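Practice record 12: protein with flavin-adenine dinucleotide.
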Amino acid sequence: MADFEVVEVNTDLLIIGGGMAACGAAVEAKYWAGDDIKVTLVDKAALERSGAVAQGLSAINTYIGMSGRAAPAVGEESGQHTPEKFVHYVRQDLMGIVREDLVYDVARHVDSSVHLFEKWGLPIWKTEDGKYVREGTWQIMINGESYKCIVAEAAKNALGEENIIERVFVVKLLLDEKVPNRIAGAVGFSVRENKFYYFKAKAIICVCGGAVHIFRPRSTGEGYGRAWYPPWNAGSTYSMMLEVGAPMVNMECRFVPARYKDGYGPVGAWFLLFKAYATNAFDENYVQTRKPDLEKYAPYGTTKPVPTCLRNHAMMLDMFEGKFPIFMRTEAAMQKILSENPKRAKHLEAEAWEDFLDMTVSQAVLWAAENVEPEKVKSEIMPSEPYLMGSHSGANGAWCCGPDDLMPEEYKADFPGGYNRMTTVEGLFTAGDGVGASAHKFSSGSHAEGRLAAKAAIKYILDHKDFEPSPRGSVEELKAQVYKPLKTFEENKNYTSDPNVNPNYIRPKGFVFRLNKIMDEYAGGIGWQYTTSEPALLRGLEKLQVLKEDADKLAAETLHELMRAWENYHRLLTAECHMRHLLYRKETRWPGYYYRSDYPDMDEQNWRKFVLSKLNPDTGEWEMFERPYVPLID
Ligand code: FAD
């Protein structure tokens, strides 16, 4: 095996990840840190095009507009958008379970991140009187192909290129060996060079996004790898924080996006900006016809806007009855706009295509390949496989401290220091997809939350000036652990004539197929129409245990495959956490995201509360526990 140089990085604040939350954290941390506190950022990819916004976006989905810079949404007057209303909206969309203090905190800060984006050069659509064009009540339109490049450039300028380490995959966080429950460092490896990275840090912000390819995707064969969520976020945030003992919350509240079929193109602009509607194969508008089916989910099912999961539910009920395919009526929406304003024809066509070209180029390619002219024909949409994430319309993530002026008394004992967005592990912070029970942050809210976490992390470092990190485990042991899959491959590769089939190891590709199959069949994937039950989950957990044993035999031929191996390990732990949460919550709270066949109804009286999980870092045992729901606003 090759020699691997050890690169030791001593820093004060380590930001792990290079996405929206990380870039926000970088800018804010540097502001408060000045030149005395060292801030380092490490990303598995290249900052300019990494994370969920890598390809760009066509809309900023969270903008409150308290400064009056945005046009009012249709049917509303200027100034009607407030953090209180935003909390109400998010709570409604998440079927009554959100950390209202965290959501409020994002809402009151998010506009400033958007104003920074504009200052840094992001083109935001404007009305004739110079206001931001609203896509929907909380969203604004952008020319966002270069969104991530612009946000990354600001982060780079703030930290300095010498403090940004790219193409290093972080494998695990390290607790301190002297101070209990205290973060002290992390280890990772370069995916391009023979370099092992050993980080010592006084505080860490772990922001590696959510998790994709936990479940078997709809894309198979030549399309495998195409997913709605970026395939490069593999649950590192959740698994690494779990392994050091940080509790997770709402890990059962996964997200199933309904998107254009096969290309996973966004539907937001079509529903909100172009006012399109969707119908089943028999031209029935399922959101209308299925209204009575949503009544049993009152108050959420009877209030507008209809929650995302219930819109899925209405569509799925039709699909389960065989009334598919489901279509977005692009042709009807465009013809209506054109009949009102024929001069807009060219402009409208450009907007429709740009929506895809800004953020999901493959959907534009697919439309072109299938001769789709959206003004003439309807287009198929489909609920996708489930994803785990905390910043979009799912709410997975860590149990975190809220701001001291808003966090309910009932949670304060979990966070004695009161540092905003710190987990229960001392010095370990998160944001974006990493913070649980606080959905609908999207790109702008994740950036704003990264800034909030960074400000608190710098305060934490200043308040604990004397702390000298001494991470658990020797460098040699950690290095051996990280590179073990390379060794396993090298030692056993000649055992069989086909290196993909070997009794002594499993390659990452085979491993992810096995994980996907288990999750699909036992945890309510697409193959089982999103349905699971206690017996299925218990059987699935047994199967995951066997897979866990085999994880020890993951093998990698190259550094790139080594990354695939560790991604799968992160997926595995995230998947187990998800299953344990599905098992614990004895109701169907989010129909359209998943169904418990043994508890098919929502149980508002007994289950309007938070479910938490914790992995003991010393024993490896799981503990499930609860926290009460505490409302902040009416
Ligand atoms: P990300 O931005 O995804 O960043 C994660 C970072 O972690 C990446 O840099 C990645 O390289 C790094 N990383 C991962 N694992 C490791 C590891 N082990 N070691 C080191 N680094 C690692 N928001 C909007 O406002 N408008 C939209 O239209 C919109 N559309 C979306 C469409 C899609 C398909 C998706 C997935 C999201 C969309 N969002 C949108 C939401 C927005 O993209 C996310 O909310 C936001 O990017 C989350 O920020 P984050 O920093 O938590 O994660």
